[in-house]
Design brief:
The chain is mainly alpha-helical. It has one domain. It has seven helices and two strands. It is globular, with a radius of gyration of 19 Å. It starts with a helix and ends with a helix. This is NADH dehydrogenase subunit 6. Pfam families: YphA. Keywords: Membrane, Transmembrane, Transmembrane helix.
């Protein structure tokens, strides 16, 4: 069912941010509200310049653009270039799936999510920016893919529930990777401090 992964993962994310984040966390309320808004807008769509765009897709793109606008000029240029690379990756996958679907051996949601997640991880070491660049790149990829199909008289709704499934899955993969990096860094620091204490004692 289209949208199953999106709804399940975003609801799970909302539960985590609402009930498990510390109440003093600076972005707890903002992140919870952002996730709820993304879920609520998933049932709406508007038509812009002949393209049918899901409300969640517009909301994600606008919110990422607002966040990116706070970056310095140098970081902003790199961010936009990175999102362009993710966009091309997404479009190439979608076109490959369209023309040669028989080669997509594993479930396409997982394959696309893993692909764009790997690209985001290669482009960014910053935990927040890698998620944002993935989100924007995939939404822009949807727009470009829809534009390409309209040139051949096909209609393709941008950021539909069918497309939001791999997006949510990619976000979950990156969040899990960020969590893994955090725990590895935490244990390395603790191990280093324990070794220092042992050196002092000896």
């Amino acid at each position: 069912m289209d949208g199953f992964l999106f709804y399940w993962l975003f609801w799970f994310g909302w539960i985590i941010t609402t009930f498990f984040y510390p109440k003093t966390h600076p972005i707890r309320l903002l992140l919870s509200a952002w996730i709820l808004t993304a879920i609520a807008l998933s049932t709406t769509s508007i038509t812009l310049w002949g393209f049918e765009i899901n409300g969640t897709g517009i909301f994600i793109a606008v919110s990422v653009y607002i966040s990116a606008a706070q970056l310095t000029a140098k970081k902003l240029i790199y961010f936009m270039l990175s999102s362009f690379i993710v966009m091309l990756t997404s479009v190439c996958f979608l076109l490959f799936e369209l023309f040669d679907p028989i080669w997509i051996l594993i479930k396409r949601d997982w394959l696309l999510a893993i692909l764009v997640s790997c690209i985001a991880l290669l482009l960014y070491s910053d935990k927040k920016q890698r998620i944002l660049v993935m989100l924007l790149g995939m939404i822009q990829g949807e727009i470009l893919y829809s534009f390409i199909l309209t040139r051949y008289s096909f209609s393709y709704p941008v950021a539909s529930l069918y497309a939001l499934d791999p997006l949510a899955l990619a976000a979950a993969i990156l969040v899990c990777w960020n969590t893994l990096e955090f725990f590895v860094s935490y244990f390395e620091k603790n191990l280093h401090s324990i070794e220092k204490e042992k050196e002092k004692l000896t």
